[in-house]
Design goal:
The chain is an alpha+beta fold. Helix content is about 20%, strand content about 30%. It has 3 helices and 12 strands; from the N terminus they run H-E-E-E-E-E-E-E-E-E-E-E-H-H-E. The strands form 4 sheets. The protein has a 5-stranded mixed beta sheet with strand order 3-2-5-6-8, with helices on one face. It has a 3-stranded mixed beta sheet with strand order 4-1-7, with no helix packed on it. Strand 5 and strand 6 form a beta hairpin.
Length: about 240
């Protein structure tokens, strides 16, 4: 359904956005030069739009790409406000990778990273990532509210003497209560950027973007403080949590 709407949006592309791909080694984040980057419309991968190579910084040139009218992203409308592109990346000594659904909005730069894994086994391994519809456009189930008071049932944590802005946050990759979903440690700065890019459009006014980012930061840090305060009350500062 979304891909069909996306294809209709491609036909309505009258504005221009910008796209740049950065190709890095997944093991050490070193840039990969001379990687071949092929770009096509998502839903029509055989129609190649651009084919470029990365420079010594692992980056492609900044490419101008078709995008829907700017007004689509400025207020709720039925039309998809961004164009979707599929990016295929190949480099000597690395597994090829495809990223489907990279979003390009008009008048702004979309930056798509591509982390390639070194080729350590037989040729033929292939990694494909599909970016789902933006949360402002896609139809997603409502979020499940979390309990204000949570059980304490883990071990091995340290409660600091004071609350601090964390370097990492723990992200639960699934609904609340799904014990089979994995937890990931994500850098705080990256987490804020990822949430912001999923909940707002880059075409919005600067003050609107700034207000939304501050709200995301406030919510996240409030959660950090709440967890710290709860643990501090239970276990005291500087003690190993016997959860």
């Amino acid at each position: 359904m979304y891909r069909d709407r996306g294809m209709r949006a491609q036909q309505e592309n009258v504005d221009r956005g910008k796209l740049q791909i950065t190709v890095l080694n997944s093991e050490d984040n070193r840039p990969i030069d001379n990687a071949l980057v092929t770009i096509s419309y998502t839903g029509d991968p055989d129609s190649v739009i651009e084919q470029v190579r990365t420079d010594s910084s692992g980056q492609t040139p900044v490419l101008e790409m078709k995008a829907p009218p700017l007004e689509y992203s400025m207020e709720p409308v039925e039309q998809q406000p961004y164009a979707e592109y599929t990016i295929q990346v190949t480099a000597v000594g690395y597994e090829p990778k495809e990223v489907s659904g990279t979003e390009v909005l008009p008048d702004v730069l979309a930056q798509q990273p591509a982390l390639l894994r070194p080729q350590v086994v037989q040729v033929g391994n292939y990694q494909r990532i599909v970016i789902p519809p933006h949360t402002l456009f896609g139809e997603y189930p409502p979020k499940i509210e979390e309990a204000e008071i949570k059980p304490v049932n883990e071990t091995g944590e340290i409660v600091l003497s004071k609350v601090v802005v964390p370097e990492f946050v723990v992200v639960h990759d699934g609904p609340v209560g799904d014990n089979y979903a994995e937890n990931y440690y994500v850098r705080y700065r990256d987490y804020i950027k990822n949430v912001a890019s999923s909940e707002i459009y880059a075409t919005w006014p600067d003050d609107t973007i700034r207000a939304n980012v501050l709200a995301i930061m406030s919510f996240t840090l409030n959660r950090v403080y709440t967890e710290w305060y709860r643990n501090h009350q239970i276990f005291g500062s500087g003690e190993i949590c016997a959860k």
